[in-house]
Structures are given as C-alpha cells and as structure tokens.
Specification:
single chain, mainly alpha, 14 helices
C-alpha cells in the first residue's frame, strides 16, 4: 500500500496544478506522460530530448494527413497522440528531476508550432488535389491556412498566459512561469549577437511573444503593477484565494484553446467528414469567438480586483 501511495504522490507532483489540468489530460495524457518520464529518468534522457522527439512525431503526423487514405490518416492520428504524450512527458520529467530551463520552455512552446505547420501544409496540398473548389482556387486554402495559423498562435499564447497567471496566485512566483516583457527584453539586450547568436535569437522571439501577451491584457498589467507596488512579492493569502476563485472557471476555456479540443476537431474533419478544410473553419470561427470571450471576461475580473485594491 505504501508503494502505491508513493507512486501516486510522485505522479501528482509532476502536475502543474489540478486547477489548470484538463480532465482528458488527467485521464489519458498525464498518466502516459508520467510513464514516459519515469523511463526517461532511468536512462538519463533529458526533457529537451523528449521535446525534440515529439517534433519529429508531430511533423510525421502532418505528412500522413496529406494522403487521402483512411489507414494512413489513422496512423497520423496515432503519431500525433504519441507526440502529445511526449509533450506531457517533457514537462513532467522537468518537474520530476528539477531540470528547468528557459530554452526548454521555449522549445516546448515551439514544438506544437512545428506540428501544426506540417499539418496546415499537408491540408493545403491535399485540398488542392482532392477538392474541386480548392483545385480551381488554389490561393483560397493557403490564405485560410495563414490566417488560421496566426489565430492559432494567438489562441495558444493567451491560453498559456492565463494559466500561468492563475498558477501565480495558486503557487506563487516560483510555481508559475509568468514572465514580464521588460525582463525578457533586458535579457535580450544583455546577450551578444556575435557570442550568443542562437540564444539571442531565441530570446528575441520569446520577448516578442511575451510582449504580445501583455499588449492584449491591459487590465491584467495594471493589476500586476498595483499588486507589486502594494504588496511586493507577498500578496495576502485572502487576495490570492479571491482571484483564484474568480479565475478558476476560466481555466476550462484555456484548455479548449490548447490541444485536445482542436485535435478532436482535426480528427473529425479528416477521419469522419473527409474534408480537412473544416478544421480551419473551426479554428477561425469557434475558437476565435471563445478567445474574445475569454479575454473580455478575464479583463473584467482583473478590473474588479484592481478596484478592490484602491
């Protein structure tokens, strides 16, 4: 019994917070990821190595989605699920072994971009061959892909930002990865293009990424500034709990804008409807409406909390 309890306690320690975890992840991806993480820890594989492996799996899935063949598409689904189990495993391994790094966080964020870039290209090439409309109007599907990709990046960035802000109130500064654009630009300027080219380039992209998150959340930035000025790093527990209670209902929306819901839509468009372009329509319409709603509601929460400080 004690060994079983130790196993589950160790598993739970690899989770960020049950507040921010999606039910399907807790039931499926996190347990599988934990098994991968334990195996990786035993043989000395690093979190970044798992992330890189997930990129190859996700890109491989994209290649298989190009073919208008059900069995190859199912194999693509298996590869994408495998890639996401690795995406769970890298973070769980990092928390298990305390192998945190800024490069690892950035690489983890970029891995999904590589997967979906391959998937978007595959969908465009496939529709140009199999669809009568897109065959006659090649440019339409490519425009849809570019606009969808931009929206996808924004949706994922904001979902991650709201999760990190929630974790900041649940676990404090050390329990979240909530960064500030100013700090990230300071790190960028401290690096040399000549001596640290790749690190500086990566830092530039991450600083831009953080700047975009802050520009879309003006009330949140006002609240962060007011809390810093009034409490420093010691926000009272009652205020933390108040914000957590208000923010927690929004976590289900951040999860919808992350991975599982969009892949369910992708799998349905490819395997059931056999019209991959429907996935673009889902991201452009459904997920964008949800994004706007989530931003507006979170900004209202921050405005009300800010008013209570004054």
């Amino acid at each position: 019994m004690s060994q079983k309890k130790g196993f589950w306690d160790d598993y739970k320690s690899t989770l960020k917070s049950e507040d921010t975890e999606e039910t399907f992840d807790l039931m499926f991806y996190r347990p599988i990821g934990y098994i991968w993480a334990r195996l990786a820890a035993k043989v000395g594989i690093t979190p970044n190595a798992i992330t890189i492996a997930s990129i190859f799996l996700g890109v491989g899935a994209g290649v298989l989605f190009y073919y208008n063949n059900l069995w190859l598409n199912i194999l693509g689904v298996i590869l994408l699920v495998w890639a996401d189990s690795f995406d769970s495993a890298d973070g769980q391994l990092a928390r298990m072994t305390k192998q945190y790094s800024r490069i690892g966080r950035i690489l983890d964020g970029l891995s999904g971009d590589f997967w979906f870039a391959a998937i978007y290209i595959a969908i465009c090439l496939r529709e140009n061959v199999t669809s009568e409309f897109f065959s006659a109007h090649h440019w339409v599907i490519w425009v849809m892909a570019v606009v969808t990709g931009i929206c996808h990046g924004t949706q994922a960035a904001m979902a991650d930002y709201y999760r990190q802000f929630h974790l900041f109130f649940v676990k404090g500064k050390d329990g979240s990865e909530l960064d500030t654009a100013q700090e990230e630009w300071d790190k960028f300027h401290a690096l040399s293009w000549k001596r640290n080219f790749w690190k500086k380039l990566t830092q530039m992209f991450y600083a831009n990424y953080t700047s975009g998150q802050e520009k879309r959340t003006p009330r949140m930035q006002e609240l962060r500034k007011a809390l810093k000025e009034k409490y420093g790093d010691n926000i009272p527990p009652e205020f933390r709990e108040k914000f957590r209670a208000l923010s927690k209902p929004l976590m289900k929306y951040t999860n919808i804008l992350s991975f599982n819901t969009r892949t369910f839509a992708l799998f349905a468009a490819i395997l059931i409807f056999r019209m991959p372009w429907l996935y673009f329509a889902f991201e452009l319409v459904v997920l964008n409406i949800l994004l706007v709603y989530m931003i507006a509601r979170h900004e209202r929460i921050c405005r009300d909390c800010l008013a209570s400080l004054r």
